[in-house]
Amino acid sequence: MMKRLLRLLTELSSRKWVSQAAGSFANSQASRRLIPRFAKSYGINVEEAEKAMHEYATLNDFFTRKLKPGMRPLVQETDRLLSPVDALITGMGTIKEGVILNVKGQDYTLEELLHQSPHAQKYKNGYFFVLYLSPTDYHRIHAPVTGTTVESEHVPGKVYPVNDFGLRHMPRVLSRNERLITYIRHEQGEVSVVKVGALNVSSIRYTDDAVLPAYERGQDMAYFEFGSTIVLLTENGTFSPSADLELGSRVRMGESLGTLHTKSAKRPLN
After folding, report:
1. Where would one find coiled-coil regions in this protein (predicted)?
2. Could you tell me the mean pLDDT of each successive run of 10 residues in the chain, 270 residues long?
3. Coil, helix or strand for 4?
């Protein structure tokens, strides 16, 4: 009964205007006084932030903060797929004939997730990561590879929560929520960075107000205004995951998720 009630309340609060209202407050001067309490409540390491807390004009300004140089060093090996974010791994594994299996008990088709894009064929037997960003995390999104932008797409949608409750009890949240999808071609293949909006995420924004024609590994791509999720996809036969990663692992931006390789030169697990 309680689960049904929570689901109903979530459905009612998933309208875009709710997130827009929350976003309006977070962008107001009145929200500034909440920054110290917000940082303390979520255990945010404010020493990593580019500026002191009192220098941020609004709560959202603080939430989308950049970090001091050197806070997220990139793994040295250039054939590694970088984590694009600080996050908790809530899903990972091989894609089975176009289906992402068992993300918190639910399956997702690539056709739904990628909005019927013809790119889906490239990933139907690839690899996926679901990376959840909590309010504690650094919320900027960085390029996981060096490469050229093939295509980008904005998919309008709902703003259901993408936390544990949302993923378990709301139907197909990752493919129903608003998404920004960026396809990047690199030396060994292609990756898709699917940025999924969520409850109280008023928007997902590209850092330069538009997708760039090319990215360097670790380059700032975009950011979430409040917490959300990245679904990272690798092209069929071009990736081997790190052996030390599992569901529930925490990763930081710039760390290795595994090794990229050409289809004809698959390497063993790291």
Report:
1. none
2. 41 49 75 93 95 94 94 96 97 96 90 96 97 92 97 87 76 87 96 85 72 95 82 97 96 98 61
3. helix
| pTM score of the predicted model | 0.88
Report the C-alpha gap between 265 and 111 in whole angstroms: 28
- The H or E element that residue 3 is part of is helix 2-12
Quick one: which of 79, 80, 114 has its CA closest to 231? 114
Closest residue by Cα to residue 188 from 122, 117, 99? 122
* Spatial separation of the C-alpha atoms in residues 213 and 161, rounded to whole Å: 31
Coil, strand or helix at 120: helix
Cβ atoms < 10 Å from Cβ of 173: 29
Residue 209 CA to residue 211 CA, distance in Å, equals: 7
Q: Please give the structure tokens belonging to residue 263.
A: 């289809």
- Tally Cβ neighbours within 10 Å of residue 77: 10
Angstrom distance (rounded) from CA 61 to CA 46: 13
Of 162, 169, 193, 164, which is closest to residue 180 (Cα–Cα)?
Answer: 193
- E-state strands within the chain: 80-82, 87-94, 99-103, 106-109, 127-133, 140-142, 147-155, 179-186, 189-196, 204-206, 214-215, 220-224, 228-234, 239-241, 250-251, 256-260
The alpha carbon of residue 108 and the mean position of all alpha carbons in its chain are separated, in whole angstroms, by: 16
Q: For residues 111 and 124, what is the distance between their CA atoms, to the nearest angstrom?
A: 10
Q: Residue 173: CA atoms inside 13 Å, Cβ hemisphere, count?
A: 32
Residues carrying an active site annotation: 86, 142, 228
Radius of gyration of the chain (CA): 18
